[in-house]
Amino acid sequence: xxxxxxxxxxxxxxxxxxxxxxxxxxxxxxxxxxxxxxxxxxxxxxxxxxxxxxxxxxxxxxxxxxxxxxxxxxxxxxxxxxxxxxxxxxxxxxxxxxxxxxxxxxxxxxxxxxxxxxxxxxxxxxxxxxxxxxxxxxxxxxxxxxxxxxxxxxxxxxxxxxxxxxxxxxxxxxxxxxxxxxxxxxxxxxxxxxxxxxxxxxxxxxxxxxxxxxxxxxxxxxxxxxxxxxxxxxxxxxxxxxxxxxxxxxxxxxxxxxxxxxxxxxxxxxxxxxxxxxxxxxxxxxxxxxxxxxxxxxxxxxxxxxxxxxxxxxxxxxxxxxxxxxxxxx
Length: 330
Description:
Layout: H1 2-20, H2 34-67, H3 74-103, E1 115-120, E2 125-130, E3 138-141, E4 143-147, E5 152-158, E6 163-166, E7 173-176, E8 182-186, E9 192-198, E10 210-216, H4 218-228, H5 238-249, E11 279-280, E12 285-286, H6 289-297, H7 299-302, H8 316-327
Parallel strand pairs: 1-5, 4-10
Antiparallel strand pairs: 1-2, 2-3, 5-8, 6-7, 6-9, 9-10, 11-12
Helix pairs in contact: 2-3, 5-8, 6-8
């Protein structure tokens, strides 16, 4: 008896620990958007339905095996199996299915002006903002910024392989398929910073293919978008200027764009406002000069399969100068 009591206490404590771990910046059970709140509600309702079915079925077995184990006529046994094993589960599951499908169309509701185009690359996210009426996108990478209180449309693409765009604190999960455009929309309800992740195995560095989502008040978002559309900040100091010259001399502008400079590449991420992002290399490293220098020297050592070539043949002072220049691009 004492062992059973200890077991119950341990189970309660384990359940409390699991419940406490459901929060954080990447949790479907800590919603910060109307779509995530709908999915969270759906989860709890389906969980309640599962509990009802479990209690009913196990209660029925307990009744016929332990509480009232007397012989049963074939007619009564068939009726019990039909009612308890077919009719009741079918009614409960059908009701849950109909209700669940009825609340899902809002997840694909059209946006209200802003459209964000996200393309899954290997292994990072290309991000283009298309404000209403824009003829050219505002280019960024590995970070999504959205206004609170407005529904923004997200169009999803993929370059080489299938990815899956998952931002559980704000919305659900949608596949990104080469040659197709899939759509979803999001309506954040509170400002904050949240983590997203590619949820479809896509190659060597799938686990390192993350992104950050920032949600802002409409006023803050408008100011951010205007700044994001502007050119890069000029280098400050001799070290950063030397880094800019090295960046251009090494041909980095053939793959990367930095608005306001001769670098206009479209192969890799746009670096115009690189240092304003919260992380480097799609969540693999913090946004620091030391991390930038490490990435420049040997990207594949951080992110297996990264297509960016290593620059470890350069002098450490040159790499440090390039890192200083990139860290100033806010």
